[in-house]
# Entry
Amino acid sequence: MSLDRLFSIIAGYMEQWVVVPVLFRFHWMAWDDLAFDWCLICVYGLFAVFVTYAVCLPLEYWRPVERWPNKKAVAVDVFYTLLNRVGVVPIVTFVLFYQAQTWTTGFLVERGYIPPTLESLVPFLLDRPLLTFLIYALILDCADYWRHRLSHSFRWWYALHALHHAQRQMSFWSDDRNHLLDDTISFLWFFVIGLIIGIPPLQFPLLVLGLKFVESLSHANIRLSFGPLEWLFVSPRFHRFHHGLRAAGRHSCNYASVFPVWDILFRTADFRDEYLPTGDAKAPEALATGGYMAQQATGLKLFWQALGKSWASLGIGRAA
Amino acid sequence: MADSGAPPVAIVLNSGEGTVSVIDTVTRQVIRTEPAYREPSHWALTPDRQRLLVADASGNALFIYDPSTGAPMGHKRIADPYQIGYTPNNRYFVVNALRLDFVDVYDGADFSLVKRFKPGRWPSHLDFSPDSRWSFNSMQNSDTLCSFDLVNMTQRWSVKVGTTPAGVLWLNGRVIVCLMGEGGIVEVDPIRGGITHFQKTGDGAHNIFLDERRHILYVSNRGPGQTSLTALDPVTLQPVRTYPIPGGPDDIAIDPEGNIWIAQRFAESVAVLDPQTGEYSTIPVGRSPHGIFLSSMLRQQGQVTAERLL
# Structure
């Protein structure tokens, strides 16, 4: 039995014996069809966390870049990961995205325009699902490169993104460590992309997990580069350079999440073979070692302050 | 009908992965998987029975297949088709656009939009009166059944029928509606829209089908918990037998031998049930199988409209 099929069957049991009883009890059975997708997201998310943990933990013990006397600062990153990959955030995001996309599609359809999918724009792709998936992955990764790069360019945006960079004990758990407002901007960013080229098909959920795995691995505290394939996928060494102390704020590099080709193409790649200490020296300590709520509150406060400064300088500022 | 030298096939619409599985019904093996865009759900047969139209809701398209082989024949852009059906006189093609809250009436010949209704939230299933004058459409998230006059293009009535109405069937001058939230079916007066009878079948009663000889009515019950298929007397609406079918049974189709092919939404399988013995075997297909068409239906008499014979 393939992994895909195994996960779908687990999600099916979850749907039939856990989710549908709740929907039925509260008269929400209209959501029955979509609930199966929620279950799949949870099952795949849990598997992703498990695989990331199983692969990265031994590697971090074997070839760590840094050894820490304690890992208290990592604990909050574990919480971010579970919240974002298995917990309520993917479900809420799914529902919000569904509703927003439905409303926008209805608005456009009433005006005589049917939103496309990539395959309807490029019919050649219809019976080439793997190629379609790769093209979607490249387009979305390119969009993420520019989102990330811009988040380092605007003062108010970096005030939010600083939460991600403040971690001095960067590990494979750090990928999902983001401010909720920063996540919201990402959501809107990809929502617009989704409207332009359609939502990617889900024939290859394991490949989606593979791409998420590359993102988690790239944050790991591992002395590891991909050698001659360093240009193909973002390695822990490549991404650590982006998280280096001197790369916080606007003077950064290596923005790509999965494919370094965007950094090469837009001249922001740095392939030096160095493993730098991470963090943001200018970030308040609460962003580095505070609990979840403290980090969110501090991020929000910094955001308002930066927004005020940006507004004062006619709306556009640079990250400190 | 296309070349009959091909083996009889079952065409299964996998909503969860945007594909269509083609099964050889003799060997009961998947022989091909064809692509759709995103979410194939329900089907309609063109009046000449030469093309099978498959609704791909979030892909905003109708995919066209050879109904005797499952071979792809192209696709057509159309907004959010969920359940679809030709009126019995073939004049109109009616689309329930579930996500967008539209009931769209297209010209059956050229697919130009004739009328758009916005009758409620989440239009899901539909059926017609045999004279093609009226359509009956369930609004899954408004708890209503709506009826439209397709001569005057007006809404006739909208009535609350119970929690989460889904499958709809015209049956002997009555309209039967499945209620997912209440575990049974209701009988509705097609003239005034009043409810005349409620019959318990099973929790999550989802869709309803009549066998070719019009002897038995089948209702798929999608849970919670144990899921099943209930057989009822089409005259009295009394249950005559319940078949435990795991994995969320959805749409069904009946082959010439009387076996019932059942899409199991949460089990990535199609179950083939012998209704005499109650035993079934399963065939693995794609994720979230939904609608199911058998090429043997091409030989059946009668007009195929919204996934069923009149």
Observations:
- Residues 45 and 140 of chain B are 24 Å apart (CA to CA).
- Chain B touches chain A through 48 residues (CB under 8 Å).
- The first strand of chain B starts at residue 9 and ends at 14.
- Chain B has a mean pLDDT of 93.
